Amino acid sequence: MKDVLKKVENLVAKSKTVFVASIDENGFPNMKAMLVPRKNDFTQGPKIFWFSTNTSSMRVGQYQKNPRASIYFYEKGRFNYQGVMLIGKMEVLTDAASKEMLWQFGDTLYYKKGVTDPDYCVLKFTAERGRYYSNFKSESFKIEEENA
């Protein structure tokens, strides 16, 4: 399993876009493309990812009602396609420490009031399991708690 986790880590590092899914009030998945996470924590495998977004967004409201989520990274090569779907939970964080951790120069373009802007929040995704695809083969894996 360590081999597939290393491949996943490499794929995430190369990705330019991530697809993020939430569940709406009718139980249907909602998907959108986002910029890659601003921060990853691979000390436990491909487990924790942090994103910045607008507190007022539809997706934030969905995660607050139902934290089940999925993220998908991919790379399309000339002859090979690889992707990984990670399934887990998304937390909406509005505390000062989380917001300051992800804040970057230029974010005032989106959040006029700066790091304390109430429309700026952090999404923390914690993966529980995943499925990796490459070379016409898929492999499912769990992210074990003992790796925590």
Write up this protein:
The chain is of the alpha+beta class and 148 residues long. Helix content is 19%, strand content 45%. The protein contains three helices and eight strands; from the N terminus they run αββββαββαββ. It has helices at residues 2-14, 58-65, 96-102; strands at residues 17-23, 29-35, 39-41, 48-54, 68-76, 81-93, 120-134, 137-142. Strands 1, 2, 3, 4, 5, 6, 7 and 8 form an eight-stranded antiparallel β-sheet that branches. The protein starts with a helix and ends in a 6-residue tail after the last strand. The mean pLDDT is 91.
Task: Please specify the SSE layout and strand pairing.
Blueprint: H1 2-14, E1 17-23, E2 29-35, E3 39-41, E4 48-54, H2 58-65, E5 68-76, E6 81-93, H3 96-102, E7 120-134, E8 137-142
Antiparallel strand pairs: 1-2, 1-5, 3-4, 4-7, 5-6, 6-7, 7-8
Order of helices and strands: HEEEEHEEHEE
Determine the fraction of residues in helical runs and give it as a percent range: 10-25%
> What's the number of extended β-strand segments?
8
Oligomer type: single chain
Could you tell me the radius of gyration in angstroms? 16 Å
**What gross morphology would you assign?**
globular
Provide the descriptors you would attach to this structure in a database record.
single chain; 148 residues; alpha+beta; eight-stranded antiparallel beta sheet; 19% helix; 45% strand; globular
Gist of the model:
It is built from 3 helices and 8 strands; from the N terminus they run αββββαββαββ. By secondary structure, the protein is of the alpha+beta class.
